[in-house]
UniProtKB/TrEMBL annotation:
The organism's taxonomic lineage, starting at the top: Bacteria, Bacillati, Bacillota, Bacilli, Bacillales
Highest taxon listed in the record's lineage: Bacteria
Signal peptide: none
Domain FAD/NAD(P)-binding stretches: 3-152
PANTHER family, alphabetized: FAD-DEPENDENT PYRIDINE NUCLEOTIDE-DISULPHIDE OXIDOREDUCTASE (PTHR43755:SF1), PTHR43755
GO terms for MF: oxidoreductase activity
Protein name: Oxidoreductase (Flavoprotein)
One Pfam family from the record: Pyr_redox_2
Amino acid sequence: MAMRIVVLGGGTAGTTVANRLARALRPEIRRGAVEVTVVTDRDRHWYQPGYLFVVFNERPLEDFVRPERALLLPDVGMVVDAITRIDLERKQLISPHRHYPYDVLVIATGSYPDFQSVPGLAEVTYNFYTPEGAERLRDRLTTWTGGRIMIVQDVPHKCPAAPVEVTLMLDDYFRRRRLRDRVEIVYTYPIGRVHAAEPIADWAKQQFDARGIRYETFFNMEAVDPKRQVVLTMDGGEHPFDLLISIPAHKGAGVILNSGIGDESGFIPTDRHTLKMIGQDDVYVLGDATNLPISKAGSTAHYQAEVLVKNLVDRVRGLPETHLYNGKVACFLENSLGDASFITFDYDRPPKPAATSELLHWFKGMYNDLYWLTARGLM
């Protein structure tokens, strides 16, 4: 009987792993020794970092979506079904329709912004972390003539630098439209600096100071009053706004919470080097689904996939699993609508933003199109 490798999740992490496995294990798949199947609850694949460009009307939303089946290699099976529970004891995925057995499971179920986490937030907020949110914010900014824009956030959330990027891009957007003197931009963060990573915080603070962007730290939301358009904070403060952009704390997928295999937020305890679920030898976890103390970002999933696939291939072929993930992450940092920085870091090396340039902005824009090669396992 073929070894059944099931990848749960059809986002960046799951799609990349499945395609890399299919290429590396092509001989085993062709002779029927291995099966690779992606189980996903949606048939479309979204490139989420592209939403920032939708917000500022730089690219249309349709540029950042593809049919999932078109991204997967022919040797990869695909099932569209909403899995409600993972049964680790019986080694099967359970949906309202059927059960899916596995021999090896790769969990790549991602994370999602919880707009219900703060009372009143969902009623009034704009966001750029969902497709519909990006288009709605784009349309609102198009008609914006002035007022106070607040960017509020909680942790953890995916793409940790994105709130800094959108703030700097907002500044440039309104300068280009000759409206900057009518717009007050206020950036907030829940701890004592403007970003969790100190080098990024130092870099961002310099940019904010130079451009007249206000920032408030130790800003922890308690509730939002939609009628009064006020954010209430845990220290008793009241903060009025005309437009609220929020990045609430993210949670793991519902299937993880329903299965009771994650922490209280739905993130799975994962070995930081082997990417195996703690206590499970046949379950691997990558991308946003892990509880690892590192950025939830597409590049994280990319580098994790390289290690995970090598170990899975060795496992199939009876070799020891010796490849280790070192925590590597890399990402661009938009500094405006026309230039960008870049950072790379890992478990042992902190991030150090590169000097901003138009070339790095161009590279980020180019990667918006090259991403589809990454998902296909070609980069």
